[in-house]
Every structure is written in structure tokens, then in C-alpha cells.
Amino acid sequence: MKNLIFNTSTKAKFFFCITIIFLGLTACSKDDGGGSDASTSKDYYFKASLDGRKIDFRVVKFQGGGNDNRFEQIVVGGYETSFPTTSGATLPPSLDFEIWNLGGNITAGTYTTPSELVMIARYAIQTKNGTLLYNTSYSDDLFTVKIEKISKEEGIKGIFSGTVRNFEGAPISVTDGSFNLPYDKLINP
User: Higher pLDDT residue, 76 or 10?
Assistant: First the structure.
């Protein structure tokens, strides 16, 4: 009986090892140029200059939703750097904009604060004492987003610029903003 258990166990281990080797060899293949991984593609970006400092944002995403396959709400944003890997470290500063059009559809076009009452742009700096938030709700500064294309199939592309302020009124100028992102995929993690 011991030999039967040993043989069955050995066969099971052998089969398991062969399966793992097979999966390892077939799962990792060279890309022959036929496709690209959206999470690493250099064709996708979210970048801007903040007070003259050029930033190519990391951990970037475009998402949105609505009824009947419409975009009633969208968010586009990212972080200045990748997330920290050490415990207790603060998150990097982030920039995003959000547009709402409940019952409608966000399409290609120009959206500007303060005339778009359901639009906001935010820049958040994380500190050990809390978040220093700059946004478009503290004043009547202009922040403009021009969407050139938007769809779940093709993603979103456009430009943006404007001013965000903190609660005390200190401004940050956002210039040369541009984005080209797929829908609901994390870019530059």
C-alpha cells in the first residue's frame, strides 16, 4: 500500500511540475508587434506644467459612466510619481478634473469653470498633517478642458489649462496640459 501512495504522490508532483513549466513557457511570449499593453504604452499620457514645473503624471486613469451608455460623469487624473513602497510614506501630489452632466452626455467640446457649475479641477498635496487642497471651487478663476475625442472604445484626448487655489487664496497655474488615455485602464503605474 505504501508503494501505491508513493507512486500516486510522485505522479501527482510530476504532473504538477510539468503543468507549471508548460504554463510558464507558454504564458510568457515575445510581443511580435501585433499589440501593445495599454498600461505601458507611450501613446498614452497625462501631463501639464504646474507653476512652470513640467510633470508627466503617473498612475493615471480616465473613467466615467452614466445611463444608456452615455458619459454623465468623467474623471481624469494622476499622481506626480508612482506610489511609495515604504510603509507610512505619504502619497505623491495628484491632479485631476471631474465633469458632471447628469441626464446629458459629455461629448467632445470645451468645458470651463466657473461657467460649468458641475466641473472641478483639483491639485492635492499630501502631508503627514493632512491634505493641502487646491481647486477651482475657491474662486472664479478659469480652468478650461477641451475634449477632442471621448468614447469607451477610443478613450479620451484633449488639452487643459487654468488656475487652482487653496483655501487661503494661493494660486497654482496649470499650463500646457494634455491627455490621451484609454477608458478605464491604469497607465504608468
Answer: 76
Evaluate whether 113 touches 119 at the Cβ level (below 8 Å).
yes
User: Is 94 part of a structural domain of the chain?
Assistant: yes
In a domain, 2, yes or no: no
Contact 181, 60 (CB under 8 A): yes
Question: Of 86, 44, 49, 48, nearest to 61 (Cα)?
Answer: 44
Q: Please, which residues bridge with residue 65 across strands?
A: 73
Grid cell 460649468 in the structure block, residue: 116
Quick check: is 19 in a domain? no
Name the burial class of residue 174, with classes exposed (0-12), middle (13-18) and buried (19+) by CB atoms within 10 angstroms of its CB: buried
Q: Which band of pLDDT confidence, cut at 50, 70 and 90, is reported for residue 10?
A: very low
Q: What is the pTM of this model?
A: 0.77
